[in-house]
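Researcher: We plan to redesign the surface later, but first we want a full-length starting point. Tokens attached.
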């Protein structure tokens, strides 16, 4: 196992020389929005220049590269985005992913394929970043808790379970070079609805206190994706409804030593 920054060209060159990969999944990024906003320079350096380093090495070794981009690259809208929709990110994270896609575009004629996966809001067990769902599940780990401290309740997101996202990424490795595909369910769920689903699953009455520090200064009211192109190309379909995904996370968290 190697531990190195994707921006460290010498270290990454060593990884490629030792491993000799034929397929690379590039998932490394600064992606927690508060962290991105707090340090835009490191966000752009990691997400853009780090991608350039990985792409150049993958090209040199003839390895197929599947890149984890984001639905955050799209221009804000109330409908489910398709890949042909305008791109116009509203924050540094979305901008960094769009710039990384532009870096990759020039490797499309390399010896192996370059494929872009525009992931929407991936969630599931093992998440350590305090995004909405891990934050909710963590607070509910205590059976006596009936009050959640959250930010805005209205934003709607397209939540994709990690198992479905992994299945999509595996299939995308066989797509033609320069393919850009959404990985999304096509269904939006608001923050309030996430809380309501958890309350129903736990059979508890939950209340929410809105913390001003958790309300983002700039945020998308809605971010959903249309993955029909991926379905048509690979047969991929999301299999985990958000209620099932939340149920498994709540059960796993309640059974962990940290919650006892």
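Model: Full-length starting sequence:
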């Amino acid at each position: 196992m190697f531990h190195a920054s994707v921006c460290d060209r010498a270290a990454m060159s060593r990884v490629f020389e030792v491993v000799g990969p034929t397929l690379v999944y590039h998932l490394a990024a600064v992606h927690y929005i508060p962290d991105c906003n707090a340090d835009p320079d490191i966000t752009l350096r990691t997400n853009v220049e780090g991608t350039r380093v990985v792409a150049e090495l993958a090209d040199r070794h003839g390895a197929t590269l599947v890149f984890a981009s984001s639905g955050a690259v799209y221009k804000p809208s109330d409908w489910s985005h398709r890949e042909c929709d305008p791109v116009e990110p509203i924050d540094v994270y979305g901008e960094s992913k769009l710039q990384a896609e532009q870096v990759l575009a020039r490797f499309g004629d390399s010896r192996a394929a370059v494929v872009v996966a525009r992931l929407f809001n991936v969630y599931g067990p093992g998440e350590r970043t305090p995004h909405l769902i891990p934050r909710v599940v963590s607070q509910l780990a205590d059976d006596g808790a009936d009050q959640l401290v959250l930010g805005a309740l209205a934003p709607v997101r397209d939540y994709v379970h990690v198992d479905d996202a992994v299945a999509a990424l595996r299939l995308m490795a066989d797509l033609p070079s320069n393919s850009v595909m959404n990985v999304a369910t096509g269904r939006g769920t608001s923050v309030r609805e996430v809380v309501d689903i958890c309350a129903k699953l736990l059979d508890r009455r939950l209340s929410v206190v809105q913390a001003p520090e958790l309300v983002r200064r700039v945020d998308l009211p809605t971010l959903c994706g249309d993955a029909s192109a991926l379905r048509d190309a690979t047969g991929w379909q999301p299999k985990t409804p958000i209620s099932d995904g939340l149920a498994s996370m709540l059960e796993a968290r309640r059974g962990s030593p940290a919650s006892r």
